[in-house]
Amino acid sequence: MAMPLSISCSQRVKEALMVGSTLDATMTTKILAPVKTERQILENSMLEDDPNANCTIGQQEEERVPTGPRWGPQHKGAQELANLYSTGKRLQECVCVCICLALMLANFFYLVLKFRWQNASAIIAAALFGIVSADFGSGFVHWAADTWGSVDLPLIGKNFLRPFREHHIDPTSITRHDFIETNGDNFTVTIPFLGRMLWDFLTLSEDEVQGKFTWNCYVFLLAIFVAMTNQIHKWSHTYFLLPGWVVWLQEHHVILPRRHHRIHHVAPHETYFCITTGWLNWPLEKLHFWSFLEYVIEYTTGCKPRDDDLKWAQKGT
Questions:
Q1: What percent of the chain has pLDDT over 90?
Q2: CB 146 within 8 A of CB 264
Q3: Which residues form the Lipid desaturase domain (predicted)?
């Protein structure tokens, strides 16, 4: 018989934890898939649909040491990281979002103009492969930024790694970011590829354009889904007032579902890094893809994975 736990959180969470102590196996197979159990999620991640329930779980009430919040906007580390978002960074994001949207519209116009029905099957396959590539790309960048480097690094630290550190200790912060702050970095990444596409449409002959058309469809869908990855990610953290069509796409796993992404946010955030569709998370986990890379890098360099991430998390205590 399981010993009762001392739990300081909402009644809903308490009930779920008490049931979870006897039904872990069932919860795993029926709800989560065999990576993290329901109990692990409740104990080791912020309850985003109940953000005030920062649980502290111990065997005895008197053993509990007073601490700050484990997650959320009141966490000291989260507040410090949020304050590092600069005016210069905001300006760069605004400019890049505008350029990227203009390139998307121009390339879409030429793709429609140059479309040929006889190439439809190859174009569909290329587009699907573009989406899968975007999912893998999101996972690789997410894994690298979560696992390695420091906010103190010049140039990329405050501008690129900072949001990843903030996100782990305040997962709902992304839901308070506007379109520019949410998507600025991802839109920036796609500009060189979309720019090259437009250059080809403007300078190549008709035969050359048709020869590269399938490839350009792949690049375009890859760019669209890369650009929208953080918006999709934001939706996976939004538990209230989502548009019905977004919920439908999540429930049918066309884009990253909320329940699926909760697995990544179980501390220490070492799995399920793909955040565009999430289609590749399960096979990559079964292949131990990320853990193998971490082992190789740690063995050859001596760097500890997620060392900087842990440092910021501990600022809340």
A1: 47
A2: no
A3: 131-308
Q: How far is CA 150 from the centre of its chain?
A: 18
Judge contact between 157 and 308, C-beta under 8 A: no
Report the alpha-carbon distance of residue 175 to residue 255 in Å, rounded. 17
Helix axes 179-203, 87-114, angle to 10 degrees: 40
Per-residue pLDDT tens digits for 157-193: 888 888 888 888 888 888 888 999 999 999 999 999 9
Cα separation, 108 vs 102, whole angstroms: 10
* Global pTM value: 0.78
- SS3 assignment for 175-215: HHCCHHHHHHHHHHHHHHHHHHHHHHHHHCCHHHHHHCHHH
Residues 6+ apart with CB under 8 A from 19: none
Cα separation, 226 vs 220, in Å, equals: 10
Give Cα separations from 60 to 18, 42, 43, 63, 225 (angstroms): 15, 19, 16, 5, 48
- pLDDT tens-digit series, residues 58-80: 434 444 444 555 655 666 766 67
User: Is the four-CA dihedral 113, 117, 119, 120 of positive or negative sign?
Assistant: positive
Residues 92, 86: Cα–Cα separation, whole Å: 10
Segments making up each domain of the chain, as ranges: 6-63, 87-316
- Tell which residue, 276, 266, 88, has the closest CA to residue 186: 276
Amino acid (one-letter) located at 297: I
